[in-house]
């Protein structure tokens, strides 16, 4: 992913910010893929290993190659995942070393919108999959049903129009069913399908919601930590007033991921 070392290098911060919600999406995504038992997989942009772990838990793979360009993510994933079926590699998603037609399934979770050449990345995923194998990925619905980020950026841009430059809802138009399907079809994949995966994101209180934005890992946290302490306090107060809260200050928000899959010719 682009700028991986500075934007995504802090694995613990990312896990608190988005990794915990990706864990809720991954099992549904994998069940929808309907991959064969004992398949060989590649997980491109594996991050802290959320999707890799889910493959191990539910898909009985023969092997997984897990690739990410950020060394801190790979180190965190290696620490958490010790299954000998997993091989970790530090590599750019668009320059992976897997041989042509060497795996049954090529997948990626929450990565596509950060790649500068998205078409090239899908071509790579298509190249490494055997004929009849599956290529699949999922991304957040940043512009729509991703409320934890929509609340943040709607409030942030009302206070500071410059915040829009960090808003993935604006900056990642690929994260919609039409563009995703077109990308897969243009790569030569067949039987292309999209699916909405809806989850809830639960926060015990406002601090549980707010604290991950202070980690600097991800677009919204990066913006949050780029502004002055006074502006950040103003943003915090405006968000606290805007977010819906339950009787015990709990916050329950909706989140949607768009998943797309296709078969290699």
Written description of the protein model:
With 265 residues, the protein is an alpha/beta fold. The chain has one domain: Vaccinia Virus protein VP39 (Rossmann fold), CATH 3.40.50. The chain is 41% helix and 23% strand. A 7-stranded mixed β-sheet has the order 3-2-1-4-5-7-6, with helices on both faces. Strand 4 (103-109), helix 5 (118-128) and strand 5 (129-140) form a beta-alpha-beta unit.
Helix content: 40-55%
Spatial order of strands in the largest sheet: 3-2-1-4-5-7-6
β-strand amount: 15-25%
* Spatial extent as radius of gyration: 18 Å
Average pLDDT level: 92
How far apart, in Å, are the first and last alpha carbons?
Answer: 27 Å
CATH class: Alpha Beta
Spans of 5+ residues with little confidence (pLDDT < 50)?
A: 1-9
Number of strands: 7
Task: Describe, in short, the structure shown.
By secondary structure, the protein is of the alpha/beta class.
Comma- or semicolon-separated keywords:
Rossmann fold; 7-stranded mixed sheet; 41% helix
List the helices and strands and how they pair.
Layout (H helix, E strand, L loop, with lengths): L3 H4 L3 H23 L6 E5 L5 H9 L4 E6 L2 H10 L5 E5 L12 E7 L8 H11 E12 L6 H13 L8 H4 L5 H10 L3 E14 L2 H5 L8 H6 L4 H14 L8 E13 L2
Parallel strand pairs: 1-2, 1-4, 2-3, 4-5
Antiparallel strand pairs: 5-7, 6-7
Helix pairs in contact: 2-3, 6-11
